[in-house]
UniProtKB/TrEMBL annotation:
Any single GO BP term: polyamine biosynthetic process
Protein keywords: Membrane, Polyamine biosynthesis, Transmembrane, Transmembrane helix
Protein name (database record): Spermidine synthase
Organism of origin: Methylomonas methanica (strain DSM 25384 / MC09)
UniProt superkingdom: Bacteria
Organism lineage string: Bacteria, Pseudomonadati, Pseudomonadota, Gammaproteobacteria, Methylococcales
UniProt xrefs under PANTHER family: THERMOSPERMINE SYNTHASE ACAULIS5
């Protein structure tokens, strides 16, 4: 007679594979939902790093809520009771599908929309995302009770979870987005969520069969000591700093290095990769190498990327930042994995980690923008990561601050006693590079290394501030805005001061300050350029035009206005309106068109409220740093523009871009919507001061409307190129990869 119990029967599939596969799919769903919903939000808030960072705060907060739920459930209920409660939550969450934006979701036009964004995310995806967030700690805790040979250390399952996250992150822009529209993405995600629910229930059944009928909460054994508060605070710091560094580097890349599409993927990819490595079976061999390598890379990183970044091409500077970031988080996460507790405290460990991640996001999104006028939280966290290196209290650690402190005092003494340091910038820069070399000598002391690096960064940031001619610097939800003064050579090769407006690393306008040129449109809006040619060619008939301009910049376009014309500017960032209207910075609006209407908010939402057939000319000049928000380039957007234009109206589109061939998108729309379009890729032969190369497209309903431009002797206008392999961009589908230059 076979007396083998049901619980001892060999399962059809290994529990390790079942649980790891479930965690893998859960993480894939989590990281597929994040960019997918970001695209759904794009028409409301435009493309800005702050939107992504605010979404990250929401995701981290809900993740913390999911981990808190898992901790509460596993410490307050027996295992069978846990299964019952979580199954009920799974079933209830299915009613929230499919994920979609709430009806009538309109962001505020004034002030910071962060809280509105978080509330919208909560209503739209809060419950499904919460359930997905509970999976990692809950299933690992369940697995620790299965009696599997690896149940005593289930933390390796966290590597499987992060592998799923990494695969989803890389698949979305390169596989999902180019081939599947948003509607189908939402459908497939909902199907995947249903599959995940089934797999979680199968895991629950596996646990149910392995436990006894005693359904009491887990009692912690006397032989397993509770992790002391000091250790839990150490976990907190080790998770907080990488979380803040992740968002800080993302913001820094977008504002100070290059506004290249999809660059935000790099830091997050490295962040997830670090978790995979530190919780893998190779972690014990990898961690010492990372600790040893970090100070060596730090020396090069500080010397070039901070002290003297101008000598590096942007791609090499980007590599250095990413490498330093990766080593910093590998050391932090390596220490975090090294000090993981017994499985009885598994959910508490993950709860502290998720709480720290949430705090990092809150700090970068809600504290730093109000405290700092630039991305200073990034260098602060570089120093914090160094202070968390192992061996903080080794040796005579209390003597380590002496040398950095003396350097700091000496530096400020020199600054206060010298009338002008500008003449000594090269000497100071050389001294800072020598100090960067000294950091390697204190590599074995986290306190000394961190403080010396902090002193170098303080002096470096001060040096850059001294050397730059930045008159105004402010940070908002939409990015970092600055006004700078630059000296150029005029037509007679004499020195002349000009004022420039920058959004991140991209110039958004400039103004010559001499009386003869103070109202002359410059840069992308110069009179010799395409937009200047358009106004010149239609000079005889545009006396009473009604003109709408999306994107204000410094206000240079206003100087094409005439007395009987009516101009209305649409601008998403209220700070840009304030700067452009303030004669302390720019004079275009004040002198050329002080009566121009200003409409603050997203252009598509604002234009939708305008009467049909009301504009003679619409000028699209909306940029977030160097990128045109994709929701302004879709077929639905084009249909909106032409519904607001008169029958003989024209659409002028500014498409200058270092990375994307936007002309392909507009050419495809013109062909499919039976419109006529002309392109000019303007490159001045004998450039005057601040007359730059720029690309513009002009589109009209009838080809004869563009005859004046086609026959113009002022510039070379040509037909838009034919497109054969481009899937039309719609609100449901866009593909950045397909138009990469």
């Amino acid at each position: 007679m076979n007396t083998t119990s049901q619980t001892s029967a060999k399962p059809l599939i290994s529990p390790a594979i079942l649980f790891a596969g479930t965690l893998f799919i859960s993480a894939m769903l989590m990281f597929a939902l994040q960019p997918m919903f970001g695209k759904l939000l794009l028409p409301l808030l435009g493309g800005t790093p702050a939107v992504w960072n605010t979404c990250m705060v929401f995701y981290q907060t809900v993740l913390f809520g999911g981990y808190l739920y898992a901790h509460w459930l596993t410490t307050r209920s027996g295992q069978q009771r846990q299964i019952q409660i979580h199954t009920a939550l799974l079933i209830f969450s299915l009613f929230a599908l499919p994920v979609a934006l709430p009806a009538d979701a309109n962001p505020p036009t004034e002030g910071n929309p962060s809280f509105w964004l978080i509330w919208t995310l909560f209503l739209a995806i809060g419950l499904p995302f919460f359930v997905v967030s509970t999976t990692a700690p809950l299933l690992q805790k369940w697995f620790s009770h299965l009696g599997h040979h690896s149940s005593e250390d289930p933390y390796y399952l966290y590597a499987a979870s992060n592998a799923g996250s990494l695969l989803a992150l890389l698949s979305y822009p390169f596989l999902l987005e180019p081939n599947i529209g948003l509607a189908n993405q939402r459908l497939f995600w909902s199907i995947g969520y249903g599959l995940l629910s089934i797999l979680i229930i199968v895991c629950a059944i596996t646990l149910w069969r392995s436990v006894s009928t005693d359904d009491t909460p887990e009692i912690v054994g006397e032989d397993v000591a509770t992790p002391p508060m000091r250790q839990q605070l150490y976990w907190l710091a080790l998770a907080f700093v990488p979380s803040s560094l992740l968002l800080g580097l993302t913001q820094y890349i977008s504002t100070d290095i290059a506004a290249v599409p999809l660059l935000w993927i790099l830091p997050l990819t490295l962040y997830l990769l670090s978790f995979i490595l530190v919780f893998s079976k190779w972690a014990d061999r990898i961690h010492p190498g990372m600790v040893a390598l970090q100070p060596a890379v730090l020396l090069i990183f500080i010397a070039y990327s901070f002290i003297n970044p101008a000598v590096l091409p942007y791609w090499l500077d980007l590599i250095l930042h990413c490498l330093a970031f990766f080593l910093a988080i590998m050391v932090c996460h390596g220490e975090l994995a090294k000090h993981r507790p017994h499985t009885q405290y598994l959910t508490r460990y993950y709860l502290v980690m998720s709480f720290a991640g949430m705090l990092g996001g809150l700090f970068n999104t809600f504290v730093a923008p109000f405290v700092f006028n630039a991305v200073y939280e990034y260098p602060i966290m570089i120093v914090a990561a160094l202070l968390l290196r192992p061996g903080f209290f080794n040796g005579r650690w209390f003597l380590q601050p002496i040398f950095p402190g003396l350097l700091l005092i000496t530096g400020f003494a020199i600054y206060l006693s010298t009338d002008s340091l500008f003449e000594y910038l090269d000497i100071i820069g050389g001294a800072l590079i020598l100090l960067a070399g000294l950091t390697y000598s204190v590599r074995h002391s986290p306190l000394g290394l961190g403080l010396l690096t902090a002193v170098i960064l303080v002096f470096t940031l001060g040096l850059h501030s001294l050397a730059s001619s930045t008159l105004y610097l402010q940070r908002t939800f939409f990015g970092v805005l600055s006004v700078r003064e630059t000296v150029i050579a005029d037509e007679n090769q004499r020195s002349e001061t000009v004022r420039e407006l920058y959004h991140g690393t991209t110039k958004h306008g400039a103004e010559r300050l001499t009386a003869a040129n103070i109202t002359t449109p410059l840069t992308y809006y110069s009179r010799p350029g395409p937009i200047g040619q358009l106004f010149t060619e239609f000079d005889a008939e545009n006396q009473h035009w009604n003109i709408g301009a999306v994107g204000l910049g410094a206000g240079a376009l206003a100087c094409y206005s005439k007395e009987q014309q009516h101009w209305r500017f649409y601008e998403i960032d209220p700070l840009i309106v304030d700067v452009a209207k303030d004669p302390k910075w720019f004079h275009y609006l004040e002198r050329c068109n002080p009566q121009a209407d200003m409409v603050v908010g997203d252009a598509r939402l604002s234009l939708a409220k305008e009467p049909d057939n009301s504009f003679d000319l619409l000028i699209m000049d909306a940029f977030s740093s160097d990128a045109v928000p994709t929701h302004l380039l879709t077929r639905e957007a084009m249909q909106l523009y032409f519904s607001k234009l008169k029958d003989d109206g024209m659409l002028a589109f500014h498409i200058t871009n270092r990375h994307l061939a936007l002309k392909k998108v507009l050419a495809d729309h013109a062909e499919n919507l039976q419109l006529s379009g002309l392109l000019q890729e303007f490159n001045p032969n004998n450039p005057a001061p601040l007359v730059v190369a720029t690309d513009w497209v002009v589109i009209a309903k009838q080809p004869q409307r563009l005859d004046r431009l086609r026959q113009s002797r002022l510039g070379h206008w040509q037909k838009l190129p034919l497109t054969f392999d481009l899937q039309p961009w719609t609100d449901d589908f866009t593909n950045i990869i397909g138009i990469w230059k």
